[in-house]
Amino acid sequence: MPLDPALRDKILASVEAGFAEQIAFTQELIRFPSLRGEEHACQDFIFRAMKERGFTMDRFKMDEAAIKAHPGGGPFSEFHSDAPIVVGIHHPREEKGRSLILQAHVDVVPTGPADQWTHAPFDPVIEGDWMYGRGGADMKAGAAANFFCIDALRRIGLQPAATLYHQSVVEEESTGNGALMTHLRGYRAQAALIPEPEEEMLVRANTGVLWFQVEVRGKPMHVREMGAGANAIDGAYRVIAALRGLEEEINREKAGRPHFEDIDHPINLNIGRIEGGDWASSVPCWCRIDCRIGLYPGVDAAEIARRIEDCILGFSRTDSFLANNPPRVTFNGFYAEGYVLEPGSQAEAVLGRAHEAATGKPLKSFMTAGYLDTRVHALYDKIPALCYGPVSESIHAFDERVSLASVKRITGAMALFVAEWCGVESLEG
Q1: Are 131 and 27 a contacting pair, CB within 8 Å?
Q2: What is the pLDDT of residues 66-117, one digit of tens each?
Q3: pTM assigned to the model
Q4: Residue 142 Cα distances to 22, 167, 223, 268, 408, angstroms
Q5: Host H or E run for residue 415
Q6: The CATH classification of domain 208-336, taken from the options 3.40.50.360, 3.30.70.360, 3.20.20.70, 1.10.260.40
Q7: Which is nearest to 223 in space by CA: 179, 267, 278, 176?
Q8: Residue 274: strand, helix, or coil
Q9: Which of 110, 223, 266, 278 lies 20 to 30 Å from 399 when distance is taken between CA atoms?
Q10: Which CATH class is domain 5-206+339-426?
């Protein structure tokens, strides 16, 4: 049943009362430079914050063998994080409501050159409505909101009347294996909510993501004789052109796909990193490119992997040098499929009421062409997986920032959602 209006107003007032503390908590999270493989201290902070709030704690490592055996597991590499996954478990005195997973990731992407930031990347400066900092929007503001939507209930003497799993994961930015590990660990609920920065909208559909590396080997020699050599960097450029052709081919396949067919270019190939050669006056004998490509929901990641390999090897057979020196393709990160959140679930209806009460506007939904951990809960738990969070700018870019007014609104919506979905009971029996 919808919340009593008096309780609704009391919860929103409690979010307001705790918001200064929530901002400070978010700033503490941003100060941790929790790049891939460097999330340990941040996860320790999260662990302590959960334990102080009375959660039953579970902290565990990734099970590489189990992840490798799962079709949605991303390949491990030397760069894979070994930071733990942290789960805080809330048990009510009496299980009266519906169970819930609240989840966030603490890993952040690299900052790039610091001199291109207005403020230091891990210095959470506030200017007007914006809080700046790497990871502030993606998604430490959401990680803090997971705490403070529950704190808002506790401040008025209430707690969820159902089991709630508060999950803090890593590897969201590179494999998705952290969220998958919570599934493999056995955590299940009747719905999941992940407050990624989604412009106060609900993600209706999400692309899958595949990471791969292409290595081209050339023949080294002095540039005065470069006509007799094979420039591996030039060869990599030709491979990229072939991959662009595959990208356009896949984009033409959007026809007939709901949520995608009206998007101009839903599938994006990104050449994210390129390195090669050893000396400016030597013809480069090696080049590696790191790539990312999206895939439609319902498309198997292995199918796209095969198409990538076929594209590169097929092109190589037509190239005078690459025909005898075929590039090597390695899948080295995301191997994740997309999902569609079908409308009509009770969880979406509850979030819609909560959003409208907190913001005064109806809840909108949209497609986002990037990876989201909600795919684990949608595809493998087969539950309503709600991705919904604050307004932001410049995520994965310089001067990443999140709107504080929006953070307050979505925290209010989350608190109302938890209260209605899980039900509430008094803190004291």
Answers
A1: yes
A2: 999 999 999 999 999 999 999 999 999 999 999 999 999 999 999 999 999 9
A3: 0.95
A4: 11, 12, 53, 26, 11
A5: helix 404-422
A6: 3.30.70.360
A7: 278
A8: strand
A9: 266
A10: alpha beta
